[in-house]
Structures are given as structure tokens and as C-alpha cells.
Amino acid sequence: AAGMTLVSVAGGSDRSVGAVAALAAAVFGVALVDWHWPLAVAAPLAIAIGSLAGLAGGLVAVGLRIPTFLASLGLLEICRGAAYLVTGSRTKYIGAAVEPLARPLPLIGVPATVVIALGTVLLVQLVLARTVFGRHLQAVGGNPAAAHYAGIATGRVRVAVHALSGGLAGL
Q1: Please, what is the Cα angle at 144 between 143 and 149, to 5 degrees?
Q2: Beta bridge partners of 111
Q3: Which among 1, 4, 39, 38 has a CA at the least distance from the CA of 141?
Q4: CA of residue 167 relative to chain centroid, distance
Q5: If DSSP states are collapsed to H, E and C, what string results for the chain?
Q6: Mean pLDDT across 53-74
Q7: Which positions ≥6 away from 32 have C-beta within 8 Å?
């Protein structure tokens, strides 16, 4: 949801987030189960796959000047198909490989997944409220023409926010 929030603030609409997450999860599962990669390597791979998918969607939307809604529907179908191809349409049981993420952390007593989720939401809020990139997102979403005349590279901002949304979906 954090990545979709960023795209929405920038005036876009991303319907592919679930499929991007599914593709990243499929690659994550294959890396853990079939390739026997450790969690610390498979997780960044999943984030990178999500980022690349989001980047592709952003480049298509901006480069071909089509609405992000339509570009994201196309990306949704591509990612859904790719997830089936990656897994061979079979469920990957990752079980014990991800158990450390579910265990409560010693000092705070909550699982790492909760800390990651809360940290992600806080980081996105900080980006929106306290960074130049966040102000650019708000400007592009509020009035793209005015943002362009103000010197903001609106196309780059839109592509970057889609890549970021994809990476967050991969997370």
C-alpha cells in the first residue's frame, strides 16, 4: 500500500501491485527452494525484480504517453504470466527458510515483519513530508503542467515512483 500511495500522490494509478508482488514472491520462492539461496540473498532479489517490473511499467507509461491505469493493467497480466512461468504453476513451500522473519525480536518482542512494515510506512511518510522527491511527487500529482514549468522532470519523477512502488511490492 505504501508504494501505491506514492503513485497516487504523483497522480497515477497502479493496478499491477498485486501481480508484481506475486512475481517477486515467485522468484523469491524459487530462489529459496530450487536454487537453495539464503534468505539474505533471495529477499534483495525479490525487491530488485519488483523494482524492475515497476520501472518497466513506468517507462511504458511515460515513454508511450499512455495513462498509468492502462500501462499497469498490461504490466499486471505480464507479471501474472511470468509468475506462473517462474514457478511452473506449482506452489513453492518455503516454510523453514522464512521462519526467522516470524520470530519475535529479542528486545522488542515483535516479529521482524512487523518492524519492516512499520519502518516502510514511516519511511514513505518521511519521503513525502521531508524530501525534495516528496515535494516533486506532490507537484506532479497536483498540477503536472505547473510542475513541468517549474523545472521538475515530470517524466523522470513518474518513472522513478513506479520503480519505487515495484520495489515496495517486492518487499
Answers
A1: 100
A2: 104
A3: 4
A4: 3
A5: CHHHHHHHHCCCCCCCHHHHHHHHHHHHHHHHHCCCCCHHHHHHHHHHHHHHHHHHHHHHHHHCCCCHHHHHHHHHHHHHHHHHHHHCCCCCCCHHHHHHHHCECCCCCCEHHHHHHHHHHHHHHHHHHHCHHHHHHHHHHHCHHHHHHCCCCHHHHHHHHHHHHHHHHHC
A6: 95
A7: 39, 42, 92, 94, 97, 98
Q: Which amino acid is at 32?
A: L
What mean pLDDT is predicted for residues 156-164?
97
Length of the chain, in residues: 171
* 32, pLDDT greater than 90: yes
Phi, psi of 111 (to 5 degrees): -65, 155
| Phi, psi (deg, nearest 5) at residue 68 | -60, -30
Category of 88 on φ-ψ map: left (φ > 0), alpha (ψ -120 to 50) or beta: left
How many Cα atoms sit within 13 Å of 59 on the Cβ side? Answer: 7
For residues 169 and 79, is the Cβ–Cβ distance under 8 A?
Answer: no
User: For the residues 4-12, what does the mean pLDDT come to?
Assistant: 95
Cα angle, residue 161 at apex, residues 156 and 165 outer, rounded to 5°: 150
What global pTM score does this model have? 0.94
- 75-86 residue pLDDT tens: 999 999 999 999
